[in-house]
Amino acid sequence: MVALVTGGAGGIGGAIATALAGRGHRVAVADVDLVGLARKAEEFGGLAVEMDVRDPESVRTGVAKTIAELGPLDVLVHAAGVVGGAGPLLSLPVESMDAVLAVNVRGTFLITQAVGEAMVAARRGGSIVHISSAGSFQPTVGLGHYEATKAAMNALTRSAALELAPHGIRVNAVAPGPVETPLTAAAMADPAARAPWVERIPLGRLANTDDLVPTVLLLASLEARHITGTVLPIDGGQLLRG
């Protein structure tokens, strides 16, 4: 099976790409971070694909390269995303809003459209898994711009699931709470910064990538063949606290 992982040079995307390769998938790792991209692809012999999900031509070129070199796509895991800083809505620069819209909403639309078209043409079915956020269901002061884009991702997930179901293509998302990755490690090392996030989680700890990977692998596999249009929180119970 062939899988494409966007944001594959990052902590979440990289862990998912490695896990898919471990299950025998031929994996294309897509990212704008060329150094991290090359390093991750080299780890397991994957295909490095330069891709900017904001750019329609870059997305279509990357999808075409994946299919040309690895074969028809069976799985897309769309992990590319940005937070775009933080700040109250009343003082947030419009540039921050534009940045998250471009990657998290426009990017989700473009990659879903390009991969969906390729999967329909191949007539093999397939699975698309988006990486959303628990924040799409629960507001956090200072992150309203980011959370709005993840709510839009959820809506795109459900619409795509409905439209692609006749072609045997399933579209789902996972919605993690805060996740410890190399990118967040420095900030979360400060107990004062870490405590407010942990206090929101009934299970009492932040997630790590190992907490996300099994569910993504399940949704990507035929074991989840009757699951589509679902946005599944992986949040340690965070959403239970409203």
TrEMBL record:
Cross-referenced InterPro entries: KR_dom, NAD(P)-bd_dom_sf, SDR_fam
Pfam families named among the record's database cross-references: adh_short_C2
Gene Ontology MF term list: oxidoreductase activity, acting on the CH-OH group of donors, NAD or NADP as acceptor
All copies of domain Ketoreductase, residue ranges: 1-177
Keyword Oxidoreductase: yes
PANTHER family reported in the protein's UniProt record: SHORT-CHAIN DEHYDROGENASES/REDUCTASES FAMILY MEMBER
Family recorded in the similarity comment: Belongs to the short-chain dehydrogenases/reductases (SDR) family.
Domain of life: Bacteria
Protein name: NAD(P)-dependent dehydrogenase (Short-subunit alcohol dehydrogenase family)
Alphabetically ordered keywords of this record: Oxidoreductase
